[in-house]
Design a protein that fits this description.
Strands 3, 4, 5, 6, 7, 8 and 9 form a seven-stranded mixed beta sheet that branches. This protein is elongated. The two termini are 40 Å apart. The protein has 16 helices and eleven strands. By secondary structure, the chain is of the alpha+beta class.
Length: 529
């Protein structure tokens, strides 16, 4: 998208400079006919581009340095605590190399190429091309190409920006299926000889939950390998009675370990069967809860309760069958929509877990209770990433929110560039045809007919630039939508909105300059230079 924005900006400047060069094509041809050397004509035409690109580039470099400084501060909030050491944003040798490469490329595109093209034409052909009051054939083709290129790039960039904006909104406002209000979360890592067996890990979870729930100022306590809204492991599963082949493959699901009672305390509704209970703490049991989408996907038209599945082990080792004892509402784990499997901690203990504590007497009381309880169980066992559930969710959505804000700036820049570029080229094209419009009016053509003719040409430009841009933008948007789990309906809505925006810009950029020329008296238009 950054490259597309650069191309759009280069096309803008190049189009306007090339349009000005075209206006002076006959002047250039006369100078060539009188013996002016080509390098001198090119140098005079290129200097304007060099000045514009250099001044703009220096301003851009300063803004970039400021933006990178802001970026480093924003990305540091994506992690709880210290950022990874490779999160370094700043201007270095590689950045400067890119800067000068892009600057030189912009000068070539906006100045050297138009100057070389304009100065190398056969001056006899240029002097014969076009008449007073009408554009030359080559100039007309070039102007059409300029407008079409503006529309194409603008449409592509805006659709991509729209997809990112909507994805970010959906990510930050999606229902994860759990209650996050007034809840403190913390991570705990079980290491060392004290927790080197599944039984020891299970006993720790049971003791921690019991002690915390009996502490003053603490409400319900939930312990899980990962909470709703956070990513989890996604192993392959096999449903009993289903034959899997290489083509079919094994489905995947989020595999989450929870302490009994945690899901109901988090507000995850039970749809059928029962919740996990103390009866499931027996490690010899093999029981699980599944989400609604797991049940509907793998048990269509029949009840999931009482059915069995197993985890597909490495190298095809057969695992034991797991009984489904209940179906709960869907919860969202991370950005991808996978079905969920919930197993008791005693059956599938994990080294790392997340504790969620209902804060009855404020955060400080709940945090102090957690630290004191951990210290009484194991003085060497710390809690880390202590934050509210709401803050945890906001931090998890931070990267996509930041990227969407960047895309918002890109989209705004694309709209401004597209509007100014299309208007500038269309206005310049119509201004070059002022005498032609004056001739038509002098011969009896009315204003409505002339306006309709120009609007029809504007619509033609919109068609030839908009259709390829729409296809390219939708292709890019489709890939991005799959990444962020966005439906085709939303993508179609974004594409339609951008078509309306670009279409309005093109039609206004055609109508307003046409009306301005039509406001001139025919005699004034005929003498227009």
């Amino acid at each position: 998208v950054a490259i597309l924005i650069l191309i759009l900006a280069s096309i803008n400047v190049g189009n306007l400079l090339l349009s000005r060069a075209v206006e002076r094509s006959k002047e250039t041809a006369i100078r060539v006919a009188l013996g002016a050397p080509r390098y001198r004509i090119i140098s005079q035409m290129v200097w304007e581009s060099v000045i514009i690109c250099s001044v703009g580039g220096i301003i851009g470099l300063l803004v970039m340095a400021w933006g990178l400084e802001l970026t480093e501060g924003i990305t540091s909030s994506f992690n709880h605590g210290r950022s990874p050491f490779w999160f370094k944003f700043g201007i270095d040798q590689f950045t400067l190399t890119l800067f000068f490469s892009f600057l030189l490329g912009a000068i070539v595109v906006t100045g050297v190429l138009p100057a070389w093209k304009n100065s190398g034409a056969d001056f006899n052909t240029v002097l014969r091309d076009g008449t007073r009051g009408a554009l030359g054939k080559k100039v007309g083709k070039l102007n059409r190409l300029l407008v079409i290129s503006e529309i194409f790039v603008s449409m592509t960039v805006l659709i991509a920006a729209g997809v990112m904006l909507l994805s970010a909104y959906m990510e930050t406002h999606q229902d994860i299926g759990a209650n996050t209000d007034n809840t403190l979360t913390a991570a705990i890592q079980l290491t060392g000889e004290n927790y080197d067996s599944p039984d020891k890990k299970s006993r720790f979870v049971t003791e921690l939950q019991n002690r915390l729930e009996n502490t003053t100022g603490v409400g319900a306590v939930m312990i899980s390998s990962t909470l709703p809204g956070s990513n989890s492991l996604k192993p392959s599963v096999a449903i009993e009675g289903v034959e899997y082949t290489e083509e079919l493959g094994y489905p995947r699901a989020n595999n989450i370990s929870v302490s009994p009672g945690s899901l109901e305390k988090l507000g995850v509704a039970l749809k059928s069967g029962r919740y996990l209970s103390l009866l499931d703490n027996d490690p010899n049991q093999a029981s699980a809860l599944v989400s609604e989408d797991f049940a509907s996907r793998h048990f269509p038209g029949r009840a999931a309760i009482g059915s069995r599945f197993r985890m597909v082990e490495i190298e095809g080792t057969q695992a034991r069958w797991i009984n489904i004892v209940g179906v709960v509402a869907n919860t969202r784990q991370g950005s991808e929509a996978f079905p969920n499997i919930f197993r008791p901690f005693s059956q599938v203990p994990t080294q790392q877990m997340t504790v969620a504590i209902e804060m009855k007497a404020g955060r400080s009381v709940a945090e102090s209770a957690l630290r004191e309880t951990l210290r009484s169980i194991d003085p060497e066992l710390p809690a880390f990433r202590i934050e509210t559930y709401a803050a945890k969710r906001k931090r998890a959505a931070g990267p996509i929110t930041f990227i969407s804000n960047v895309f918002s700036l890109f989209g705004l820049a694309a709209i401004v560039l597209a509007a100014s570029g299309i208007y500038g080229v269309m206005s310049n094209t119509i201004n070059q045809r002022t005498q032609e419009i004056g001739v038509k009016r002098a011969l009896g053509a009315n204003d409505k007919r002339i306006t309709r003719e120009f609007m029809k040409k504007g619509a033609t430009h919109l068609f030839w630039g908009g259709i390829p841009g729409l296809l390219a933008g939708c292709a890019m948007g489709f890939l991005m939508a799959k990444l962020y789990d966005m439906g085709n309906v939303e993508l179609a809505g974004i594409a339609t909105t951008m078509v309306i925006i670009i279409g309005s810009v093109v039609l206004l950029a055609t109508y307003l300059p046409t009306r301005r020329v039509l406001n001139l008296e025919p005699a004034e238009a005929l003498h227009y230079e």
